[in-house]
């Protein structure tokens, strides 16, 4: 996705459940790794990882300080994946109460876990992660990320110098503006509602050219009179 001078590669995932075989899980992560390799520099990986991160550990650099429940074996594998790809698990960076953390509940409603995550290598661009308490037929709750797209400011040295006007005096500027206004007014008399955008553009540029020629002719005549 390209937006505001920033290219984003967004990868949506659905990981095998806890009941799946280890081979299936490794195939899943290998597939996501390949998708990341084909992506650009700015990456978001999000979706149902079927893994419980639990409470982050103090020495982990890709997690924040907040979690839900206990870590599972699949949670350890997700941590490894995040480290391997330098992706921060953004759910863990925002303080929420437990009612606002869980993303999945069992059919009987007795078990609730946080297994849907938002990972990115642009953690400074994420302003919030929010679990939405929306009632609809699913055992998952949607997770919404507030993500800022910040344009890179150009260095002033990259801007060219401001064009200098070739009109040397106030009188020359005044004469040119009068000529241009006259040409544009005349242009309105020949304006056609059926004109294409290109035709309109050509008429306007032609009016500017005529006004410039008139200005040059005026300067030549003025110079002759002063000799």
Automatic annotation (TrEMBL):
A Pfam family the protein falls into: Exo_endo_phos_2
Residue stretches making up the Endonuclease/exonuclease/phosphatase domain: 9-143
InterPro entries for this protein: Endo/exonu/phosph_ase_sf (IPR036691), Endo/exonuclease/phosphatase (IPR005135), Swc5/CFDP1/2 (IPR027124)
Lineage top rank: taxon: Eukaryota
One function term, GO molecular function aspect: catalytic activity
SUPFAM superfamilies: DNase I-like (SSF56219)
PANTHER family from the UniProt entry: BUCENTAUR RELATED, CRANIOFACIAL DEVELOPMENT PROTEIN 2-LIKE
Name assigned to this protein: Endonuclease/exonuclease/phosphatase domain-containing protein
Species name: Parnassius mnemosyne
